[in-house]
Amino acid sequence: MSCVGLLCCNVLLIASMGLQDSVLATIRGHYGGTLAYDACASLSDPAGDADAYERHIDAARVECVMETSVSLRAGDRQRTTQLTVVGDGQTLLHLGEGGTAVPLTGGAILTHKLARTLGVSVGEEIACQLPGDDSAFAMTVTQIVENNLSQGMYLTRSAWEGLRKGGFVPTAIYMQEPTAQAFDMLEKMDEVEDIDRTSDLAEEALIFLHAVSTVFSILTVIALTLAFVICYNMGLINFAERTREYATLKVLGYRQREIRRLILMENVIITLAAIAISIVPGVAFTGAILALVESESMRYVSAVAPTSIAIGSLTTFGFSVCIQLLLARKVRAIVMVEALKSVE
Predict the structure, then answer these.
(1) Mean pLDDT across the stretch 282-291?
(2) Is 56 within 8 Å of 186 (Cβ atoms)?
(3) Is 176 helix (H, G, I), strand (E, B) or coil?
(4) Among candidates 75, 219, 79, which has minimal Cα distance to 151?
């Protein structure tokens, strides 16, 4: 029972710290990997020509995108999501695994979670319908990409223009290393609604993480309370059942320090066994919690840091040893005459 209690304690400790690691890794991976631009300017309707923006804005790289909503249907599954039309050969959205850059092909490009929700894979057809369009059109899924914090469908500009559903009207401008003159120019444009820096968005997301860290602290408190209740009670029961054995060891000449060492050694073996068994369930439990709290537009990556596993395991070990040190002090209070009485 002590082993089970310590195992559950360490699983909860690993999960509480692993959740923070996973959310932090997801945020950093999105804003530091997927989004390769430094600032984004949102445009209102009517916007100007995309090629004109890319020529005149002073930045290392400028790319325009068009965003709208689209209704997707595959079999009996239907979802309304965001459609993002990017320029051919775009480089400011890294949609590969781990935030790596991948070339976008023609046809329908779906994010991983959206494809899983619709139950489609590469090579299958989906029905698409744009707002205000009475007829749906079919597209073949040619690529599945990664974007953990923004699910949707992507099209290249040439693929969009091939559908003949309207011109490419930019709704946002992505900029890499924009200059101060670029910001001044954008602020003077009537069609520019807002300018967001990627670093500011990442900082706001980290502030949200700190705000919900109370939930992770509650898990830690529950884990330590569980360990104390189970280990202390199991220790008391164990000590009561073996008082006669401890008294016999005293009669045989064992000192109190040696008996306490035997008790602690037994506890160390149990604790180390529980910690070794709990590591894999702890990581799996973290992934299970993340899967439960995911929404249709967000996907968390389970990333439990080795330091979190080490800190959780050391905390469980130290807590267990402290409890056993309290119990081992009871050896001094054993009355040998009463302890050695038996009804056998």
Answers:
(1) 89
(2) no
(3) strand
(4) 79
Determine contact, residues 29/146, Cβ cutoff 8 Å: no
CB atoms within 10 A of CB 342: 6
Average pLDDT of the chain, as a whole number: 85
Q: Which domains does the chain have, with CATH numbers?
A: 2-30+208-340 (no CATH), 45-190 (2.40.70)
What percent of the chain clears pLDDT 70, i.e. is strictly above it? Answer: 91
Spacing of C-alpha 277 from chain mean position: 23
Question: CA-CA distance, 108 to 120, in Å (whole number)?
Answer: 11
What one-letter code names the amino acid at 251? V
Give SS3 for 191: coil
- Does position 281 have pLDDT exceeding 60, yes or no? yes
Q: How confident is the model at residue 38 (pLDDT cuts 50, 70, 90)?
A: very high
Tell whether the model's pLDDT for residue 226 goes beyond 80. no
Among 6-10, 60-64, 159-163, 231-235, which stretch is predicted with the lowest mean pLDDT? 231-235
CA distance 50 to 47: 8
Q: DSSP for 8-46?
A: HHHHHHHHHHHHHHHHHHHHHHIIIIIB--SEEEEEPSS
Each residue of 58-78: pLDDT tens digit?
999 999 999 999 999 998 999
Are the C-beta atoms of residues 328 and 260 closer than 8 Å to each other?
A: yes
User: 278: which residues sit within 8 A by CB, 6+ positions away?
Assistant: 6, 7, 8, 10, 11, 14, 316
Cα–Cα distance, 263 to 31 (Å, whole number): 52
Question: Residue 340: is its pLDDT beyond 70?
Answer: no
Q: Which residue has the tokens 């325009």?
A: 64
Among the listed residues 41, 47, 60, 87, the one whose alpha carbon sits nearest the alpha carbon of residue 185: 41
